[in-house]
Structure formats: structure tokens, C-alpha cells
Design a protein that fits this description.
This protein is α+β, with helices and mostly antiparallel strands. The protein is built from five helices and 15 strands. Strands 1-2-8-7-6-3-4-5-9 form a nine-stranded mixed beta sheet, with helices on both faces. It has a five-stranded mixed β-barrel with strand order 11-12-13-14-15.
């Protein structure tokens, strides 16, 4: 049922599940998914396919942790859990579109809740920020993927930050080559050099107290510079695309 252009209101479990599956299938770069743990079995096929497509999947599940779950490594890049059902139903795909509503939509078939699917970049960005800045921080880390194979090119900057953080945490020296835009004068250029810091709160241990901060510090020939994601303002550069590689053995 269409409420207005770009919005769809869903009032049945089956319609909401279909909408979530559609969003997961549409993702090319990143997904944030907050659902009751009891609903995971309905989304395994789509989440597994997203992992196979190398999509970043941040999965937050809530409810009774004694409920059997599929192997997290098959369906997510990182997983956190919350015992209490205090998290709304929330999905974003590529920070472009998503769905939000009462989590009871997937646990109580007669409660009269509803969920809204939206195709709006600004709303998706707001929901993505809320997911990471509030709900994700309240969760307990249950699973994080291994460091990916390098070299690897990322268009989803938060994925590059996560994998860089994991590599640095493991003591693996890495280097980056990034196509960037200066946040000072909007000129486009390419920078490269060793990655010396990753500031983030996606995985433990968090290296930033600001949940919205996801940045890399790259040691260039002209000195260290900071790189942020889309819309970066505090960093020296906004990243368009970045390739991370291991530092070659000398």
C-alpha cells in the first residue's frame, strides 16, 4: 500500500518479510539489519547471498538468545546481540533505502503494528546513523569476520575502515591508495601510503568515542592525512574509492 511517493506501509508479517528480503537482495555495498532473533531463519538465504556478494552486513539481533540461530559467519560481517526487545525493526541498504517499524511486526501477528519501507537517501542516512550511533553501541559483540584477503578495493568506506581496524588489531601492516576529494576546496586527487590509524566503533576495541566517526589516517609523502567517508567534513579528504593492501615484505 503506497502512502506517498517513496514510502510503502506494510501491516502484515509476510509483507514486511518480503520487503526486508527485497532490501537485502538490492544491496551492493552495505547492509544494517536489526531484527528479532526469532526472525533470522526467514532471512538466511538473502543474508548468505549478500555475504557471497561481498556486501558489508552489520547484524543486530535481539530477544531470547537461547533461540537457535544459523552460523553467524554465513550471514554477517559482524553481529551484536541485545537481550531485551528495545530495538526497533530497522534495515538500511547502501545508505540509500530501508525499512523501519516496530519489532513486534515479526513477533506478534495480531498486535496491529506496521512498518514503513522507504526509498529516500536522507532518511536512509538518518536511520543508518541511528543504527550505529545508538542501537549498535548497546549490543554485545558476538561475531566479527576474519580480515579479508588483500589487496581489496572498497567503494563502501565503512567496510574499508572495519577491515583496516581488524588488520591493524592483528598487527598486520597495511597500505592504502585512495581516490579522494579535498574537504577544503573540493579538488579531486589520489593519495597513497601506509595506514597508521583507523578510528571507528564498529568492532571492539572502539578507537573513537564518536559513534559517527569512521576514518583512516594515511601516512603520505607530505605527512599524515585523515580520510573520511561520504559527506566527511572533519577529515582532510572524503573518500570515493580505496584499495587496501598488505605492506610488501622487504
Amino acid at each position: 500500500m503506497m502512502a506517498q511517493p517513496g514510502l510503502e506501509i506494510h501491516r502484515t508479517q509476510s509483507a514486511v518479510l518480503d520487503a526486508i528480503r527485497s532490501l537485502i537482495d538490492s544491496a551492493e555495498e552495505s547492509l544494517t539489519v536489526a531484527v528479532p532473533i526469532s526472525a533470522l531463519s526467514e532471512l538466511v538465504t538473502q543474508l548468505s547471498a549478500a555475504i557471497e556478494r561481498d556486501v558489508l552486513v552489520l547484524l543486530l539481533v535481539h530477544g531470547d538468545e537461547t533461540v537457535p540461530t544459523p552460523p553467524y559467519e554465513d550471514i554477517a560481517t559482524a553481529v551484536r546481540t541485545i537481550e531485551n526487545n528495545i530495538t526497533p525493526l530497522l534495515v538500511t541498504a547502501d545508505t540509500q533505502r530501508g525499512l523501519t517499524g516496530h519489532s513486534g511486526m515479526l513477533t506478534d501477528s495480531i498486535a496491529g503494528y506496521q512498518a514503513t519501507k522507504f526509498d529516500n537517501k536522507n532518511l536512509a542516512h538518518d536511520q543508518f546513523t541511528m543504527f550505529l550511533g545508538s542501537h549498535w553501541l548497546m549490543g554485545t559483540e558476538r561475531y566479527v569476520a576474519d580480515v579479508c584477503e588483500f589487496p581489496r578495493t572498497f567503494s563502501a568506506f565503512q567496510f574499508a575502515v572495519l577491515m583496516s581496524a581488524l588488520a591493524l588489531r592483528a598487527g598486520t601492516a597495511i597500505t592504502a591508495r585512495a581516490r579522494v576529494i579535498s574537504t577544503a576546496d573540493r579538488t579531486e586527487t589520489t593519495i597513497s601510503g601506509p595506514v597508521i590509524n583507523a578510528r571507528q566503533s564498529l568492532v571492539y576495541p572502539a578507537s573513537s568515542t564518536n559513534p559517527a566517526e569512521r576514518s583512516l589516517t594515511i601516512e603520505t609523502e607530505d605527512g599524515p592525512v585523515t580520510v573520511g567517508g561520504s559527506g566527511a567534513t572533519k577529515e582532510a579528504y572524503e573518500c570515493l574509492k580505496i584499495t587496501i593492501d598488505r605492506v610488501a615484505d622487504e
